[in-house]
Amino acid sequence: MRLSSMADYAVVAMVAAARQCPTAGADGDARARANAGQLALETGLPAPTVQKLVSRLVAAGLLTSARGAGGGLALARDAHDISLADIVEAVEGPIALTPCVEGISHDCAPGLGCSVRPHWPVVNEALRLALSGVPLTRLMTPQDDVDMVQ
Amino acid sequence: MRLSSMADYAVVAMVAAARQCPTAGADGDARARANAGQLALETGLPAPTVQKLVSRLVAAGLLTSARGAGGGLALARDAHDISLADIVEAVEGPIALTPCVEGISHDCAPGLGCSVRPHWPVVNEALRLALSGVPLTRLMTPQDDVDMVQ
DNA sequence: TAAAATAAGACCGAATCAATCCGATTTAAA
DNA sequence: TTTAAATCGGATTGATTCGGTCTTATTTTA
User: Fold this and answer.
1) Residues of B in contact with A98 (CB under 8 A)
2) Residue B111: which of A43, A97, A118 has the nearest Cβ?
3) Domain limits, chain A
4) Which chain D positions come under 7 Å from a protein C-beta?
5) Which CATH number fits domain B5-139: 1.10.10.10, 3.30.420.40, 3.40.50.1110, 2.40.50.140?
6) What one GO molecular function would you report for this record (chains A, B) (predicted)?
7) Nearest nucleotide, C1' to the C-alpha of A51?
8) From the list A130, A134, A138, which residue is nearest B130 (CB)?
9) Which of A60, B3, B60, B143 is deepest in the core (most CB within 10 A)?
10) Partner residue opposite A109 with nearest CB, options B45, B134, B138
11) Using a CB cutoff of 8 Å and minimum separation of 24, what contacts does A84-87 make?
């Protein structure tokens, strides 16, 4: 039930990216793009780690990258349209509490016929829904007033 | 985002326990209690693993145990009142996606003052709510018709 | 054309986790 | 009183994954 450190760091890195390139993407590539080194400096994370993170985030379509001198990173879409679920899935893959769903095998309980298995997709979807409800913009606000969610 | 194997097995073990001791607790200790060995046989899990699991489940108050010959296990309360959240918390501890909440330290991003941290409790509570909505009785049904939630 | 700056991928050490085993304690039955 | 059965607790071993570092390839500017 714990998030992997990489996913945890990815959330922090995305918040930092959203601050440095507030609404990139719309105004072309002429903007001042933030690079991985600047993100590492702001977040305090080791630079190679941030580089590996942005690689996955770019591959997942959450960030856009420009190579070469003067290159850097930019948010692929508006920060309001990026949720926690997007970031977690970009780093950890599909949201699934158990490996039952992915592969065909993994017979943890062959004797039962595993009556539990058919119910996992429902739980996974509920979790995904909960994470989808948290946009990146909410994580950017430094205030600590807890916004009551039911 | 993956459940630990122990928590995964605990869910299967609890389902098996709920089948062998349908509604124990009310009718005293005179019932036929299932022991850890029988649960291991039915679930296909290794016996030592099941023993360690039931230890934690008893400590968490989900199962009651009777030591000595003729002893065994019984559900502490009705299967309908035991949720996925209870089982996960019994094995893994409090539901928290990041270690930020528990301890005071763990400064993953000292530069930012970690604007993300105050928002984690909200996410954790949402996840806990999703898991609390799945009672043990639902997991016992062997049918694979997906009951639409949402 | 050359140099510099960037992203992207491969490699390796380390830590956590899962699984197993062994002993101690307790209770019921013979 | 003795024996057997069953839980409880800790300690050990092995493996998988995670985190970090390094090297390579590509692109842009001067």
Assistant:
1) 2-3, 8
2) A43
3) 5-138
4) 4-10, 17-22, 26-29
5) 1.10.10.10
6) DNA-binding transcription factor activity
7) C7
8) A130
9) B3
10) B45
11) A84/A11, A84/A131, A84/A132, A84/A134, A84/A136, A84/A139, A84/B123, A85/A128, A85/A131, A85/A132, A85/A134, A86/A60, A86/A62, A86/A132, A87/A7, A87/A10, A87/A11, A87/A14, A87/A57, A87/A62, A87/A136
How far apart are alpha carbons A11 and A9 in whole angstroms? 5
User: DSSP readout, B59-126?
Assistant: HTTSEEEE-STT-EEEESS-GGG-BHHHHHHHHH-S--SSTTTTSS---S-TTTT-TTGGGHHHHHHH
CB pairs below 8 Å between A and B: how many? 151
Q: Which residues of chain B make contact with A7, given a CB cutoff of 8 A?
A: 1
CATH class, A5-138 region: mainly alpha
∠ Cα A96 A105 B6 (to 5°)? 55
For A25, the 3-state DSSP assignment is: strand
List, for residues B136-145, the tens digit of each pLDDT value: 999 887 655 5
Residue pair B63/B73 in contact by the 8 Å Cβ criterion: yes
ipTM: 0.83
Per-residue pLDDT tens over the stretch B92-144: 888 888 876 554 444 554 444 567 778 888 888 988 998 999 999 998 876 55
Say if CB B80 and CB B132 are below 8 A apart.
no
Closest-approach residue (CA) in chain A for B8 = A98
Query: What residues of chain B lie within 8 A of the CB of A34, using their CB?
Result: none
Q: Where are the beta strands (DSSP E) in A5-147?
A: 63-66, 72-75
pLDDT, position B143 = 55
Q: Which residue places its CA closest to the C1' of nucleotide D3?
A: B69
